[in-house]
Amino acid sequence: MTATPKPLALPDHVGVLVVGAGFAGLAVTERVLRDDPAADILVIERGADIGGTWRDNTYPGCACDVPTALYSFSFAPSPDWSHTFARQPEIQAYLRKMVADNGIRDRILTGCELLEASWDDAAGTWRVRTSLGELTAQTLVAATGALSTPRLPDVPGIETFRGRLFHSAAWDHDYDLTGKRVAVIGTGASAVQFVPEIVDRVDRLTVFQRTPAWVLPRGDRTLTRLEKRLYRRIPLTQKIIRGSIYTASEGYVLAMAKVPRLLPAFQLFAAAHLRRQVPDRALRRKLTPEFTIACKRILLSNDWLRTLARADVDLVDSGLAGVTEGGVVDGAGTETPVDAIIFATGFSPTEPPVARHLRGRDGRTLAQHWAGSPRAYLGTTVVGFPNLFLMYGPNTNLGHSSIVYMLESQAAYINGALAHLDGGSVEVLPGAEARYNEEIACQLRNTVWNTGGCSSWYLDKEGRNSVMWPTFTFRYRSRTKRFDAENYLTRRTVRASAG
C-alpha cells in the first residue's frame, strides 16, 4: 500500500493530540486504538506523509543499522523484508502498510506543523497553535523523535558558497553529482552509507573527519524465498528469530555498561576490520579512534573504510575551518575547490526543537526548563508539564538494541496513564523525577558512554549523559508495564471549560 494518509480537518478539541507520525507517534496511536477503537485521538504531522526520519532521509544507501526483525513493531511482523537490514524505501512502505492495516490513517492530519502548545492550568487543557489553526487537547504526546531536525554547523563563509549545498537528511535529488568535485562534512552513520554509494559517480571526493569512529562489518544478507515463505506460513518462526536477535542484542549491553573488560575483544575485531580494508598505515592512523569502542555509536559498514582508501578520495582530519565561494578550507588553511558540499553532521538530540514550542504550567518552554540538559521521569513525563508525554525522551536511546522496543514500552505506559486520567490531569511529582534521574545517572557513571574517553552527542551542555538508557531494555519495559499513579499528582476534575 503506497497511498498517503487521508487528509482531515482540524477539530476544535481532541482528547489526545499526538505530534509526529514516525515510529514513535504511530506506536502510541496504535496502542491507544487497540484498547479503544473509538478513542478521541489525532496525529498531526508536519510532513506530507507519515514515516518521520524514514520519510525524510532518502540519501543513497539509506538503511537501518539494526536487524529488521527487531526494528519493526512486535504487533506488525512482515515476511516481506528483502534484507536482514532493511533499506529506507522498504521501511517507509512498511509503516504505510501498518497504518492502513491498523485503522490509523483516518486519525492522521499531514501538512500540519505544531507552532506552539501551552498548558492552561485553569482549564486543565493544552492550547495548541498549528500551521492549520488552533485547537485544545486534554493530553499532548510529543513524538517528534530525537533525530528529526538536521543540524548544520556554524561555519564561516557558508552563505557565500556558489555551488550546491545540502544536508544528508534533506538530500537534493535534483542535483546530479556525476563528474562533480564533492566535499562531505562528517563521518557518522549517514556518511558511511551514502559515501560508498556516490563515490563512483563523482570526479573527486573530499571527506572531512572531525573524529574517527570504530567500524564493524555489517552482517547484511538477502533473505531467501524459503525464509519468506516460512515466515508467511508459520509466523511463529519469525517470532523466534526476533526473540533470538533480541536476546543476542541484550548481551552487548553487558560489555557497554556492566562488564567493560569485555570491550577490548570488540575493539580488536574492529581494528582487524580496519587493517583488512585500509592497507596504508598513515591512513589507518587517521581512522583509528583514541577512545574506547562503543563510547560513540559503533558504525556498521562493509565498504566505508575501503572507500576511504581509494585514490580518488581524500580524507581530511584537520577539520572544516571555512567555506569560500568556490570551495572548502581545512584546519591547516588549505582550500579545496568543490562543486557541492554535503553535510552529514547529524541532529541535536539533547536539544530537541519541539522543546522550544511547549510551554508548561509556569509559562516557560520545555527548552527553558531543561536549559540544555533534558530530564524526565521514565523519559516520558516532566515536572511542570501536566498531561504531556514524551516519546523517545531523555535517557531512552540505546547503544545495543532497537528503539522500537522502547517506543512500544512507552506507548503502553502512556496508554495506562490515559486510562487513569478520567477527564483530569496528571503531573509527575518532583521527588519522583529527581530520584529517577539520580538513579539513571548512577547507573551511567561507569558505562563506556561516560568513561570511554570520547566527546559524543550523548553528553549535553552540562556534560550529563541525558541520552542513553544504561541497562537492559527489558528492565525499562518492566518499569513501564503499568502506570504508577503514586508518583503523580492527579487532578480528577477540570476547573474550567476546555473550550
From TrEMBL:
InterPro entries documented for this protein: FAD-bind_Monooxygenase_sf, FAD/NAD-bd_sf, Flavin_mOase-like
Q: Does the keyword Cell membrane apply?
A: no
Q: Which SUPFAM superfamilies match?
A: FAD/NAD(P)-binding domain
Keywords of this entry: FAD, Flavoprotein, Oxidoreductase
Q: Does Oxidoreductase appear among the keywords?
A: yes
Give the source's domain of life in one word: Bacteria
Q: Which family does it belong to?
A: Belongs to the FAD-binding monooxygenase family.
Output this protein's name: NAD(P)/FAD-dependent oxidoreductase
